[in-house]
Design brief:
By secondary structure, this protein is mainly alpha-helical. The protein has helices at about 1-10, 10-25, 35-50, 55-60, 65-90, 95-105, 110-115, 120-150.
């Protein structure tokens, strides 16, 4: 079992790319997964959480600057990048609004999972997800108003 897990971890990027191509070419081949998505995500989050220790979060608490910088980038750089890419590509207003919304939304399980597999700071990723999710109801409408005046 350990060997299987290491093989998956080592080749995760290849596995993701292969499945992405299959899903793009034949989306109906993944329809059977739909009823189980919330259970799969819950299992992934539980497994990642099980790898974390209190010490990991203690490091985050002693360096709150990392969280503040991450949140600042999440709510400035990402929406601005989405806005300018949309303008550069001359997207319609509807797509521009969608891009800015996606750019200003907090990270989630996927970002935490990629951080985990890339051997990054999962506690920091989880902390950023938590904080940006709590701020989203206030900052996302504010960003939309500031960038789109709507």
């Amino acid at each position: 079992m350990r060997m299987i897990c290491r093989t998956i971890e080592k080749n995760f990027h290849i596995i993701i790319i292969v499945f992405a191509f299959i899903a793009f070419a034949k989306p109906q081949s993944f329809a059977w997964v739909e009823p189980f998505v919330k259970h799969i995500i819950g299992g992934i989050m539980f497994c990642m959480g099980a790898t974390l220790k209190f010490v990991d979060f203690k490091k985050i608490i002693t360096k709150p600057k990392l969280v503040f910088v991450g949140i600042a980038l999440q709510y400035t750089f990402m929406p601005l990048l989405a806005f300018f890419i949309s303008k550069l590509l001359q997207l319609t207003t509807e797509f521009l609004i969608g891009m800015v919304i996606v750019g200003s939304c907090p990270g989630g399980t996927a970002s935490n999972l990629i951080t985990f597999f890339s051997k990054g700071n999962v506690a920091l990723s989880v902390s950023l997800t938590l904080c940006s999710t709590l701020l989203a109801p206030i900052l996302t409408p504010f960003i939309l108003f500031m960038l789109l005046e709507q």
